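BACKBONE GEOMETRY TOKENS:
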Amino acid sequence: MGIAIDNLKGTVAAFAVLVTFSTSGGAQQADLRDEAELLRQLAEATPQQAIGLDRQLQALWSQSGSASADLLLQRALDAVERGDIDAALDHLTALTDHAPDFAEGWHARASVFFGLERFGMAAADLEHALTLNPNNYQAIYGLGLIFEVLGQPDRAYEAYSRALAIHPHHEEVTNAVNRLKPQIAGKAL
């Protein structure tokens, strides 16, 4: 359980920063809207370049295409910031009902479930998010955290490795891979 608690604040804070950044930096992000190109560049980027590409991808993935879905997401973020997790969960559930094809809604709700240590529900939402957007390395990382918390280091390592293949300079994923390597050394990966 230590991994979940240690990463909860970081996960929720990172989620809030990403969505806040994506909604306020729209003009800066407007140059690249091609996900495949952004992902290609991310795979080949230097660590410094990866920061900007990560922001562009997060901004792209945070676009629902619906004003009401955006409002629900913003209300959920505001509720998380206030510490009103029940309200955040209500808004995110309404969001996934209203916009079931918006992967980031499922990812956001998974983050809240993770914080509540409802790991089964978080994993289900992450799997749904990844069905809609299989390149979301943040969601893959979240799934790895769940596997790690549940004592499944092999599956966690596999998820982390998958996320690292997409975003080779993701610091938290790199740390997770390095943390698990000694545990699974000598096992077939």
Notes: Residues 2-24 form the longest helix (23 residues). Residues 147 and 153 are 7 Å apart (CA to CA). The chain is about 80% helix and 0% strand. Residues 7-31 have pLDDT under 50 and may be disordered.
